[in-house]
Amino acid sequence: VFRGRILSRRLVGRETRYEVEVKASYGQRFPLVSREYLWVPDVCGCPPLQEGGDYLLMARRHVNYEGTLNRILLPTDGYARPWTPREHRLVRDAQRRC
C-alpha cells in the first residue's frame, strides 16, 4: 500500500503504464523508489486514475516465472482511492494493528 501522484499515463500493448511519484509507503514488503511505473493489465481505464491526482494504491509485485520481469501491478479491480487525510488515518491505524 502506498500513496502516489500520477505523473503520466501511456498505453503499452494491451496494458496501461502509469508513471507514479511515490509520496508515502505503508508497510511495503518490497522497496519502492521515489518514481515507479505502475502497470494495469487493461487499456479500459479501470481503475480510473487521473494525471496529477494523488491516490492510495494497493498494488502487488509481479515477477514472471523466468525472473526477468519485476514490476508493480494494480489489478483492474484493485484498490485505488483518491488520497484524503481520512484515508491516511485509516491506513496508519491499520498498520499499527497489523
TrEMBL record:
Keyword Manganese set for record: no
A cellular component term, taken from the record's GO annotations: extracellular region
Keywords attached to this entry: Disulfide bond, Secreted
Chief location of this protein within or outside the cell: secreted
Domain NTR, residue spans: 1-98
Keyword match S-adenosyl-L-methionine: no
Coiled-coil segments on the chain, per record: none
Protein name: ATL5 protein
Organism: Rhinopomastus cyanomelas
Lineage: Eukaryota, Metazoa, Chordata, Craniata, Vertebrata
